[in-house]
Structure formats: C-alpha cells, structure tokens
Design goal:
With 262 residues, the protein is an alpha+beta fold. 46% of the residues lie in helices and 13% in strands. The protein has a two-stranded parallel sheet. Strands 3-4 form a two-stranded antiparallel sheet.
C-alpha cells in the first residue's frame, strides 16, 4: 500500500473513531499516528531489511538467502509492539509507534501483501497505484464492514487475523463482469495467484500477478478473456473492489484504536 493511501485511510479511521467515542484526539497525537503510517515506508536500512509481506505459508524463508532480508513483516511488527508497550501514552513517540503498527495492519489488507506477491519498482503493483489514484476520484467511497472481527488478545494475533480475513475475503469475492450483455463473474484468482497456483521461483512461498492485473492501469472499462469469452469489467466494478478492501482496512485500523484504548 502506498504511503498516501496509508495516510488517507488512517485519517478516515481517526475521524470515525472520534465520532463513535464522541471526543477529539489531540491534533499532535493524531498527526503523529498519520506520520507513523507513512514513515514506516521511508527508505531506511530497516525498511530494506524488512519486507512487508504476510507469512501465508511455511515455504516463505525466515531470511532471504544472500542478503539475509526478512521477507515477512512479523519481526518488525513485533519490535514496534514492544516499543509501544514500553512507551508512555503521554509521549508523542507512542503515537508514531502506533502509526507504524497500523501501517502493517493496513498492509495486511492488500492482496499482494497477503497472497503474497513480490513487488517493488519491478514488477509494479498496479492495484496499489489504482488505490492511490482512487483517493481523488468521486467513486472512492470505502464501505466499512458492519461485523466486528479480529478482536484478539494481542496485537500480533490481530495482525495475523486481519491477514487471514483478507485471504478469506479474496477467496469469496468475485469480479462482476458482463459477457455479451449478460451478467457473469470471475474469481479474483484471474488477477492474483498464490504460490500453489503460480510459484515465484526467486521467492519461495510467493505467487504472481497475472497479466490481467493490467486492468487496474485502465481508468475505463477493461476486458479479460477467459476460455475465449470476453468479460467486460466496468470501472465502477474496479472501484467496488477497491472500496471493499479500503473499507476493511479502515475497520481494522479502528479495531487497533479500540485495542489500545486510544
Ligand atoms: Zn508497507
């Protein structure tokens, strides 16, 4: 997830949380949370050494073989949790750690981070770019799920639960398409494939973007061809998928605010 998206979703989550609690969080504290969600992606040695993916399966290495980077975010997540727990709530730094923790909770809502699919400058994650561009679109309207979930005993269990729920959501969601004017649908595996469907040889336990992920580069209707049938995917449908994912990320962020009694 791009830094701009982390910040925008966090600001929305804070506004909803304040309304629900009927009180205002100090501006210094809320600004520091938003800063932390962005700072976690700053190019530092820690960022280079800790990738932000979920340990979806046991084939994922603890450390990459040559440069010994950590492919998943669990170690850095737990480091931030320790720092948060040993910092006073009166200190501004507490809110930066909270923002950094939320960064990872939000990453666990994005398909490429949980499936997981390696991405950086190449290959690019076109859906993450779509999410970022959508922030300025009138169709950006995240749906906050009503049901409460991932109210676990520890922040680490919340992190794992959020990722597992995203994987379930992706499995159960279909893209609504039209074929020759009739409504049809396609599973999301036409866009994102896990390590079992399409293994990444360089990164054990990782999957791949399919070529159809390019639909997120179009700011108009797109086509996906499956078994010789042309499926049209409307721009509205691409926004529906994005709004669903962003809505869940906002709810999961609010859950963390409740967990730490912000
Ligand atoms: Zn990240």
């Amino acid at each position: 997830m791009k830094p701009e998206v982390h910040q925008a979703l966090t600001k929305r989550a804070i506004a909803i949380y304040e309304k629900r609690q009927d009180r205002t969080i100090s501006k210094n504290f809320s600004n520091r949370i938003v800063y932390g969600t962005k700072a976690e992606d700053n190019l530092t040695p820690s960022r280079l050494w800790n990738w932000h993916f979920f340990r979806q399966n046991n084939e994922i290495l603890e450390k990459t073989r040559f440069l010994r980077m950590r492919p998943t975010s669990e170690t850095i997540f737990n480091k931030h949790v320790k720092k948060l727990q040993s910092t006073s709530k009166e200190s501004l730094v507490y809110y930066e750690y909270l923002g950094r923790i939320i960064h990872h909770i939000q990453d666990m809502n994005t398909p490429s981070h949980v499936i997981p699919i390696y991405h950086a400058l190449k290959p690019k994650d076109l859906f993450e770019t779509f999410m970022c561009d959508a922030l300025n679109d009138t169709m950006f309207n995240p749906e906050i799920p009503q049901e409460q979930s991932c109210q676990k005993d520890t922040l680490y269990y919340n992190y794992k639960c959020v990722a597992q729920e995203t994987l379930t959501l992706l499995e159960n969601t279909h893209i609504i398409t039209s074929v020759n004017g009739h409504e049809d649908s396609l599973p999301l595996t036409v866009l994102w494939q896990n390590h079992q469907a399409c293994p990444d040889r360089k990164n054990p336990g990782f999957g791949h973007f399919t070529k159809d992920c390019k639909i997120f580069a179009d700011k108009s209707d797109s086509s996906i061809i499956v078994d010789g049938m042309v499926h049209t995917v409307t721009l509205e449908e691409k926004h529906r998928i994005n709004n669903m994912i962003c809505g869940k990320a906002i709810r999961d962020t609010i859950n963390i605010f409740e967990f730490v009694k912000l």
